[in-house]
Amino acid sequence: MFRMRFAVLLIWLFAFAYARGQVRIHSEGQPTVHANAHAHNDYAHSRPLLDALEQGFGSVEADVFLVNGELLVAHTILEVRREKTFEKLYLQPLAERCKENGGRVYCDGPELILLVDLKTEAEATYAKLLEKLAPVESMLTQLVDGKVKSGAVRIVVSGNRPVETMAKQATRLAFLDGRMDDLESNSPVELAPVVSDQWSNHFKWRGRDEMPKDEVDKLNELVAKSHQQKRKLRFWGAPDNEVTWNQLAASGVDLINTDKLADLSAFLSQSK
Fold first, then answer.
1. Is 256 exposed, middle or buried (0-12, 13-18, 19+ CB in 10 A)?
2. pLDDT band at 29 (very low <50, low <70, confident <90, very high)
3. What is the longest distance spanned by two Cα atoms in the chain?
4. pTM attached to this predicted model
5. Which residues are CB-contacts of 258 (< 8 A; sequence separation ≥ 6)?
6. How distant is the alpha carbon of residue 118 from its chain centre?
7. pLDDT tier at 30, thresholds 50, 70, 90
8. Can you say whether the dihedral through the CA atoms of 205, 208, 214, 217 is positive or negative?
9. How far is Cα 98 from Cα 94, in angstroms, rounded to an integer?
């Protein structure tokens, strides 16, 4: 009797979440995929990676520290825990999911961007990252002899970036999170397929009322330039609300940064 009541309770809770737009599922059992949804500081959620995938996010972000020869996921060095390894929280679950879904994170879905923000010294942390990626390279988008070979997951390195080292590698398992300088220099898209920058470096608008026309024009210009170079554009630190999401989506920003996974997922589902 207890098990039956518990099962009924779970069904009721799921139905309630579905009705509020917090869970959206295709008839095949897959979530609605939002390729332009980026889970900022994903590891801070109750279930790192899994919460974002449940909401259909196309991009997730993990901060990593190299501590005693291990890559640990945390926001600051004071928060590192031995059990929260990059492998355990991200690489292993993604590999298992790809195995279950015929080689994709989402069945017949786009590649997932896994943005890895290196918080410790660039060269040593990047070298350890490559070591961790080697066992799961079959699921990764890679650069092979200067050409991109598509996979289920694209690793994008941010934070303390070993730019020169990565630029010299004709074959590698990761790509670079570029900056606005890459748009100006038109650096190889095979090196920096994503360009990210802080919102306040370019805009004063704080997500209230309408965005001023001159700033909308500037945003549209940056999007157009990124797309002309076949890059994805992302801003961090933008107002995290529906007014801003609406403007970012309307302007074609490729990755909308958020800490509010269910809210952004519901917003994007309703906007389709």
1. buried
2. low
3. 67
4. 0.88
5. 37, 38, 39, 40, 240, 245, 264
6. 14
7. confident
8. positive
9. 6
